Design the sequence.
């Protein structure tokens, strides 16, 4: 216990991380500078991100955060934010909102009897108020007006 605590404190003080060897349960100290990085060419990052968003649909979770994008791209928060800003010309919030609005449109088109609160929840919005505001900003009309025009 004391050795483990010492190793953890030692690792934090020396900018190193502790890795567990799965078979033996042994801890090894590995310098963070020597960790293996996966390099994905910048032009492919957008494609990988879009395919992951379309396939996994993580934006349907209300608590979806930019850190969750690391499942698709092994980049830190700063690089992920820069990728979205440069490639999509928007913030992470607006990037996710676009996917959620498209999902809401799909839900309203395929399930015309679904209440707007249910559409909002299923599309990943935290509330129907946020849903209405974001939907109007992205489409130029309210969800109910969109539903009426797209019957």
Sequence:
């Amino acid at each position: 216990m004391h050795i483990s605590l010492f190793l953890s404190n030692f690792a934090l003080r020396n900018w190193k991380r502790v890795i567990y060897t799965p078979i033996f349960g042994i801890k090894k100290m590995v310098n963070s500078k020597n960790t293996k990085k996966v390099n994905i060419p910048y032009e492919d990052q957008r494609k990988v991100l879009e395919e992951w968003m379309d396939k996994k649909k993580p934006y349907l979770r209300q608590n979806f955060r930019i850190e969750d994008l690391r499942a698709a791209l092994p980049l830190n928060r700063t690089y992920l934010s820069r990728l979205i800003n440069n490639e999509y010309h928007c913030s992470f919030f607006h990037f996710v909102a676009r996917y959620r609005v498209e999902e809401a449109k799909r839900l309203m088109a395929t399930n015309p009897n679904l209440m707007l609160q249910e559409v909002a929840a299923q599309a990943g919005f935290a509330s129907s108020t946020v849903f209405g505001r974001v939907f109007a900003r992205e489409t130029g009309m309210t969800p109910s007006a969109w539903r009426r025009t797209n019957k």
Residues 92-110 form the longest helix (19 residues).
